[in-house]
Amino acid sequence: MDMQVQKTLYHFVNGQKVEGTSGRTGDVFNPAIGQVVKQVPLASSAEVSAAIEVAADALPAWSATPPASRAQVMFAFREIVKNNIEELAAGLSAEHGKTLEDAKGSIGRGLEVVEFACGIPQLLKGEMSERVAKGVESYSIRQPVGVCAGITPFNFPAMVPMWMFPVAIACGNTFVLKPSEKDPTCPLMLAQMMQEAGLPDGVLNVVNGDKEAVDTLLSHPRVDAISFVGSTAVGEYIYQTGCKHGKRVQALCGAKNHMVVMSDADMDQVVDAAIGAGYGSAGERCMAISVIVAVGDDTADELVERLKPRVKDLVVGPYTDAGAEMGPLVTPDHCAKVRSYVDLGVSEGADLVVDGRDFSLEGYEDGAFLGGCLFDNVKPDMKIYTDEIFGPVLSVVRADSYDEAVRLVSDHEYGNGAAIFTRDGGRAQNFISNVRIGMVGVNVPIPVPVAYHSFGGWKRSLFGDHYMHGPEGVRFYTRMKTITARWPEAIESGAKFHFKRGSEDN
Ligand code: NAD
């Protein structure tokens, strides 16, 4: 397989690399040096339509392929990804900036979804009832939805596409992926690996692009379902527009994940958890902890004192530095946006306990780096509290009581993840029951469910009815059909003009 780094990228349609013809391209940065290193073609509506037609043409044969045969492709794909994980991770980190270990970890989480999809024959089994009436059986089957589209964000260029296409394709659908234009290399590599694993041409296609490409996917009559992961503003638009065009849509969106710390928590564990979950991947995770709600001033004082040196001492560097704990932000623009939020927090009156704005690294002066930032005394009406910042900025909010803490978490517009740190089982149980959040951790800061459970948030963190992967993923990518059958020996002559309950038949 040809995976050499190219200056100008391509689309991947019908099993082939396809050059862009729109004449429009986007810049792909190496954020560690702050330089544009590649161009990505931005597809025209006509190019996207062509890819959709290819996926539609591939649908009849693929959906008729036995699930066990589809699973064989997933088994082979898993091996290829595992064997090429270093190369994939390097391609990912070079454009995203995250450390290699983190990149490999995220590909590993994507592989778990592939492993889940390997079990597709079992997952597609329906339900059957015999003798629902005299000589009548009733059963349900799950069939593919059709042509599915995936629109994915920059922060997990391998894992998030792998939340989608392995499940969709194993269910018998064909797929058009529109990855983030900020780091498109890794998704292209994955599509080529699926091909190498034996996937027929046209079943998985990748079109690079921006709003024009997305709008075509949202309105094209041959697209049946759309999976989106990204920011809330875009996700809400995608949900509304896709639904208006009669498509099934799931849109997983932005977040502001809180970690509630009770006075009885193990503080060593809390500090480690907050550092890893707040600053890992430079805070560019939809499940990153961005707010700590410390219950009681003593808890807050101790926590801030212990976090301060840890945030100051974070090792920030390029992905090529094996010792780096945190890389740059994805682009210079995003870095400037995050930095402006830190400025805003200061002007809003929060206490900036650790200021990472003057961070600089010799040899990487133009890189999109920002040191870790820590705010104390953040108030719920501040923009740094209400908005998703998506950077290495952690806010401490002080609450007087557990009830106040739960209210804060529940009232926030986002509802992706939340964690409570406590030794009190009853308190944890109360939190699990009452907090209005989709994914809850107890002494676990980033409660991302394993692949055989489903991932999704509440409130404005998800539009649509289905979470991703796990059983909800299979439901999203399939339609249920229910069958009621009576065989000739049991058919009585004479027309029937009224409904009967099965129990009336004996
Ligand atoms: P984004 O919304 O800017 O982009 C996501 C996708 O939408 C990209 O493919 C992009 O090309 C496309 N897009 C951007 N603007 C568009 C527009 N106006 N019209 C149509 N399409 C458009 O998100 P991002 O910055 O790439 O990713 C970060 C965001 O993703 C954060 O908000 C983060 O919380 C969220 N995210 C959520 C989850 C989750 O599971 N809930 C997971 C990962 C990331």
Explain what the structure shows.
The structure is a single chain. The chain has 506 residues and is α/β, with parallel strands linked by helices. The protein folds into two domains: 250 residues, 3-Layer(aba) Sandwich (Aldehyde Dehydrogenase, Chain A, domain 1), CATH 3.40.605; 186 residues, Aldehyde Dehydrogenase, Chain A, domain 2. A seven-stranded mixed beta sheet has the order 14-15-16-13-12-18-19, sandwiched between helices. The chain has a six-stranded mixed beta sheet with strand order 9-8-7-10-11-21, sandwiched between helices. Strands 5-6-22 form a three-stranded antiparallel beta sheet. The chain binds nicotinamide-adenine-dinucleotide.
Notable features of this structure?
506 residues; alpha/beta; Aldehyde Dehydrogenase, Chain A, domain 1; Aldehyde Dehydrogenase, Chain A, domain 2; 2 domains; 6-stranded mixed β-sheet; 16 helices; globular; binds nicotinamide-adenine-dinucleotide
Low-pLDDT runs of 5+ residues are: 1-6
- Please tally the β strands and state the result: 22
Strand count, sense and closure of the main sheet? 7 strands, mixed
Q: Helix coverage percent of residues?
A: 25-40%
Counting helices, strands and paired strands, the structural category is alpha/beta
Question: Per CATH, what is the topology of the largest domain?
Answer: Aldehyde Dehydrogenase, Chain A, domain 1
3D shape: globular
- How many distinct helices? 16
Just name the CATH architecture of the largest domain. Answer: 3-Layer(aba) Sandwich
Radius of gyration: 25 Å
Overall average pLDDT: 96
